[in-house]
Each structure stands twice: as C-alpha cells, then as structure tokens.
C-alpha cells in the first residue's frame, strides 16, 4: 500500500512523510523501506541533534566523505532541526540524493521559514492503522471504536492508561509546546471542548465561550490541530442547485480512542449515542487514509441543506455515503440520500451500516461496513 507508493516516489524525488506521534512512521520506514535506504539519521538522538543545531552541515560533510550519490537518505524527526532543510536542498541539487524526511508536524518548519523544497519533494501523510493493514477478519469494531487505531493502543488489552498519557503528555503538553499557548490548563480545556464537537459543524464563537478564551485564540488553536495532523476539516459539498447547501466545514479528530479519552468516557457500547458518532468517525478515518495513501488528489466532503437534510460524506465528488450504526436501515435513514439523488450530482448512493448482508432499498445500496471497506480499499471509489 503506502510502501509501494513511497518506494515509487523515492525513485525520482524526495518524500516528506508526516503524521501524529506513535502512529508508527519510524517503524514503518525501518522495517518496510530498509532496502531502499542508504543512510539514516534519527534526530531523537540528543547528541546528534545538538551537533546538528550547532552545525547543520555535518550530514552533508559525512555524505561527501563517503561519496554517496543517487541514493536515499532517511532523516527522522526533521522538524527538530529546520535548518537542515537548506542542507537537504543543496544535497538534492549537488549530489542527486533523494531524502525520506519524517516528523510529527511541518508546523515548526513553516514557522521558522524553512525551505520546504518546492516541487522537489512530495508530501505524504501517515495515519493510524487501517482495516487493510489489520485485516477485516481480525478487525473488531468494538476495539477500533474504544481503543482507537494508534498501534500501541489498538493492540493493548487495556488502553486506558496509555490513552490518558497520550492525551495528557502529547496532545496537551507537546502540541501546546508548539508555542500557541502559555497556559496548559486553558489549552487542555480547549481540547476537551473540541472533542465534544467531533463530527459537527464548527462554531468558533461557541467553542471560545465554553473554553473561556478569545475567538481568535480558538481559531489559532484549531489551526494548530490541523497543522499537526491531530484533526481535519471535512468541507461542505456545495454543488447542489435545488436545495441550498450549508457551507460550514465539519471537524474531526484523527483517532476514535483519543476522542473518547479527551471526553473521559468509559467504554462505549453499541446502545449508546456515542457509538454511532465514533462509528462515523471510524469510517471517515478509513476514507481519509485511503485518499492520502491511494488517491492523494481525491476529495472528501459532506452535504447538508439549509432545511437540515444531510449526507455524511461525498467521496471524490461522485459517491454519496450515509453512515448509520443501526443493524436495520429503514426508510427514514434514506431521506438525505434521496434528496441529494434528486440533484443528480453523484453516481452512487450508499448507506454503510451494521446489517449482516448487502441489499438495495429504493435503489440505494445498503452495505455492511466490512463490505464497504472492501470496496474502498479495492479502489472502487477512485476518480
């Protein structure tokens, strides 16, 4: 999957691979791409990092000494030394090297005004585990929704302490350490409130009031979540004519377990309202991952009319997807899809649910969630 994609890109150009901490970027590179890497540098090594901060030319001098050309060099945690980007650029130009650069955020690079290589590199995003990697036969929906898909959390028998540590130490302290807040309690309060609007249209004023900070501050903090890949916006689909569409984007965190931990929810069961919300987020995560891994120029939207008819996702502009955690889809679940179908803007209309078998209801596909994921990763929704 992403291994083949990244290997193919590295044949001709540099790759900048970013993703949240603990999603497995470094392990993926060291195990799956070890045969294509000629030299590696890990900036978590404090000794190496201190030397590079004092003299960013060290790596170039080592490579010149070894006369390395036309090969791949791996630098992990590149955001810790933004000055290296100029050196990377120089080595690409002078020695024909390609680089695999990984990190948890490009924010520090952009903030420092670092050279981001222009068209010499391809940006790629690394996500938590997806169903294709786990295998549908091994994927427990209960585990995916409650544990989340960060590898160490998903595989843990009891992830509560790990999730709490991730939320407390990484999300609160390290993300706040991006320089956006001097008050950890205020930023922590903001994160908890942001988790309550997961899967909803964003209203910055309401969040600011609840967080007791200025609206401009809240907007800045949301941007930090986007820059560090902790959250995404799903923009509104506005190509309808008969029914006017709302234009406000929806907000989603990158992981279901993180949302549950931020809200301090006990284990969620299928009879609770939160189960449906996390189920929708889980499927959004799969679609977002598929786009980033297999169709980087593809799009994901949602649609809501001003009369409150809604379809959860529009994939690549032509596939309308409603998500329902129910085990029995009824006519009322199809209202949004029917309304959108009248516009004639999509090719397919589907309800993804927890029924056991696929069927048609009023010409709309009713798909068990595993069937949908099989279609997704087989490329059925490619542009």
Describe it for me?
This protein has 383 residues and is an alpha/beta fold. It folds into 2 domains: 2-125, Rossmann fold (3-Layer(aba) Sandwich), CATH 3.40.50.300; 131-377, no CATH class. Helix content is 44%, strand content 17%. The chain is built from 17 helices and 14 strands. It has helices at 2-10, 25-32, 46-54, 58-66, 84-95, 107-111, 131-134, 141-147, 151-155, 160-176, 184-196, 204-211, 215-227, 256-263, 273-294, 335-343, 369-377; strands spanning 14-18, 39-42, 72-76, 98-103, 121-125, 200-201, 231-234, 250-253, 300-304, 310-315, 319-323, 348-353, 359-361, 364-368. The strands form 3 sheets. The chain has a 6-stranded mixed β-sheet with strand order 9-10-11-12-14-13, with helices on both faces. The chain has a 5-stranded parallel β-sheet with strand order 2-3-4-1-5, with helices on both faces. The radius of gyration is 22 Å and the shape is globular.
Task: Offer a concise description of the structure.
The chain has 383 residues and is an alpha/beta fold. The protein is 44% helix and 17% strand. It has helices at 2-10, 25-32, 46-54, 58-66, 84-95, 107-111, 131-134, 141-147, 151-155, 160-176, 184-196, 204-211, 215-227, 256-263, 273-294, 335-343, 369-377, and strands at residues 14-18, 39-42, 72-76, 98-103, 121-125, 200-201, 231-234, 250-253, 300-304, 310-315, 319-323, 348-353, 359-361, 364-368.
How many beta-strand segments?
14
Instruction: Give the % helix.
Output: 40-55%
The largest beta-sheet arranges its strands as: 9-10-11-12-14-13
Strand content: 15-25%
Instruction: Identify the overall geometry.
Output: globular
- Report on the biggest sheet: 6 strands, mixed
Mean pLDDT: 92
Total discrete domains: 2
Alpha carbon gyration radius: 22 Å
Low-confidence runs of at least 5 consecutive residues: none
Q: Which structural class do the helices and strands define? A: alpha/beta
């Amino acid at each position: 999957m992403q291994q083949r994609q990244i290997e193919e890109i590295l044949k001709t150009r540099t790759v900048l691979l970013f993703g949240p901490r603990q999603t497995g970027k470094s392990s993926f590179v060291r195990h799956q791409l070890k045969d294509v890497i000629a030299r590696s540098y890990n900036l978590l090594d404090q000794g190496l990092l201190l030397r590079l901060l004092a003299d960013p030319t060290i790596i170039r001098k080592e490579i010149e000494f070894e006369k390395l050309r036309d090969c791949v060099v791996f630098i992990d945690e590149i955001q810790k030394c933004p000055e290296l980007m100029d050196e990377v650029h120089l080595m690409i130009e002078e020695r024909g090297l390609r680089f695999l650069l990984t990190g948890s955020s490009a924010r520090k690079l952009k903030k420092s005004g670092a050279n981001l290589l222009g068209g010499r590199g391809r940006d790629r995003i690394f996500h938590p585990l997806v169903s294709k990697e786990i295998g549908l036969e091994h994927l427990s929906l209960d585990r995916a929704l409650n544990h989340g898909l960060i590898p160490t959390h998903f595989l843990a028998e009891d992830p509560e302490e790990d999730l709490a540590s991730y939320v407390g130490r990484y999300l609160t302290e390290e993300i706040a350490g991006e320089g956006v807040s001097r008050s950890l309690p205020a930023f922590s309060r903001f994160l908890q409130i942001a988790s309550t609007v997961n899967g909803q249209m964003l209203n910055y004023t309401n969040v600011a009031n609840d967080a007791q900070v200025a609206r401009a501050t809240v907007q800045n903090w949301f941007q930090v979540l986007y820059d560090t890949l902790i959250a995404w916006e799903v923009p509104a689909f506005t190509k309808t004519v008969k029914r006017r569409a709302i234009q406000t984007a929806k907000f989603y965190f990158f992981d279901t377990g993180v949302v549950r931990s931020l809200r301090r929810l006990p284990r969620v069961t299928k009879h609770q309202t939160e189960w449906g919300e996390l189920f929708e987020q889980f499927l959004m995560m799969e679609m977002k991952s598929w786009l980033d891994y297999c169709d980087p120029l593809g799009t994901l939207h949602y649609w809501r009319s001003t009369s409150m008819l809604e379809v959860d996702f529009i994939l690549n502009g032509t596939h309308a997807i409603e998500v329902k955690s129910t085990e029995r889809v009824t006519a009322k679940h199809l209202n949004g899809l029917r309304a959108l179908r009248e516009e004639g803007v999509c090719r397919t209309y589907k309800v993804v649910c927890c029924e056991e078998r696929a069927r048609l209801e009023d010409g709309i596909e009713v798909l068990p969630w595993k069937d949908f994921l099989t279609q997704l990763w087989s490329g059925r929704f490619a542009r």
